[in-house]
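User: My collaborator and I are trying to settle a disagreement about how two of our proteins should look. Neither of us wants to argue from intuition anymore, so we agreed to look at predicted structures for both before our next call. Could you fold the first one, then the second, and keep them clearly separated?

Assistant: That sounds like a sensible way to settle it. I'll keep them separate. The first protein:
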Amino acid sequence: MEDNLLPGERIDELHRNGYKIIQNVKKFCFGMDAVLLSGFANVKQKETALDLGTGTGIIPILLEAKTKGSHFTGLEIQEESADMARRSVALNQLNDKIDIISGDIKEASRLFGAASFDVVTSNPPYMNDNHGITNPELPKAIARHEILCTLEDVIREAARVLRPGGRFYMVHRPFRLVEIINTLSVYKLEPKRMKLVHPFLDKEPNMVLIESIKGGGSMIKVEAPLIVYKEQNVYTDEIYDIYGY
């Protein structure tokens, strides 16, 4: 398989079911947020799931490894990332369980049809024009800033492709939490479960994990916070071991 790697690419171990992933460190590699989202999300037996903005396919691959879902789909607009994701799916012999589709998040409901998935996940760009400096490298900029889609685009399309009672799982930044909850409500996605992630015990949270239900009632469970110590250089295998993800 290494003969099929393009310049700058490498194969990384995922420490789940012997799975691996192809990444390019000069483009964009998955981070702790994707790993935590894959642990927070739940895809039940016979359910299908769509990952909006899948990048190199990390979330569908991890969800296939740890849940009982029947089929997983990743949607990615950057063809280079989608190509790496497809090759990672093939590397892990998961072609019958995972599809990687090239396309725009804003067109998800047109591509897949309304009410076509039980679960939607997304690790969307966190920053808009008012937040931070845009990375000069376009692949990283697209992944981090709302260049090709907005928070509302992600939530709107998640609501449209979800079946009634379906679940939407998202990881984002707490400083946009009010905007997130308001937008979820507009599209009839009711927040039901939330977990804040802290980089240190005495520091404010830098990530929030949210589960919403399409057409759900108005009640939310705020789970115990998760502390991820950055100085320990926690990565995939340590997160699995320490936090049960």
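The second protein, kept apart from the first:
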Amino acid sequence: MSKQAQWIVGLNAVASALEHDAEHVREVLLEAGGKNPRIAEIEQEARRKEIDVRRVPQNALDGVAGGVRHQGAAARYAAAKTWDEHELVGLVEAADGKALVLVLDGVQDPHNLGACLRSAAAAGATAVVFPKDKAVQVNATVRKTSAGAADTLPIFSVTNLSRTLRDLQKAGVWIYGFAGEAAASLYALDLKGNVALVMGSEGDGLRRLTRDNCDQLVKIPMPGEFESLNVSVATGIALFEAVRQRSVG
């Protein structure tokens, strides 16, 4: 696993970094005169863990936040753990036949990625996978939207998504790709074993090579007038159908 330096912003993101990975927090910046009681809590926690804390003007926080709403808190951080592609199969094997992998094929919006990570963490997903190219990566907005999930989930940014899907298949994972025109329904699937749920990008859905490497294409039935769902909403529905099935045996 490797690390790189970056700023994270927002009360939840900074608090989560202090809770889950404090050894990689280099310093915390807090708004001078900030009245939110959570700012004081973050300062207390950072000082307790012997992390440098500075009270700075709002414009200083604006500068490091890069347009993201910082809520009076930012931290210079050795970025969230990035996992080597070759570690993914080991995580699947360690899941003892119940791996639940979320694959995102080219999600572009950092808010969508953050929301997907949050759902994946809540569902107890084994890992989240997305390509390095033509997809948003974990940044300050993603970290803030994920409400801490980016700190705790095994996240894989892979060079070749099709190859990764084939590696998962060799490890005994069944690959379900979600497409609106598919015939099979999500609710007809058996999601109790090793499965990967593959969601496409906001505009174009699954790429052709990704489709070709899925074992089956499926859809979320929608009796209403709309033909598609936001990718983060679809992700939550699919993940928690797997959770439901596993909870009832």
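Some points you might bring to the call about the second protein. Residues 137 and 229 are 22 Å apart (CA to CA). The longest strand covers residues 25-31.
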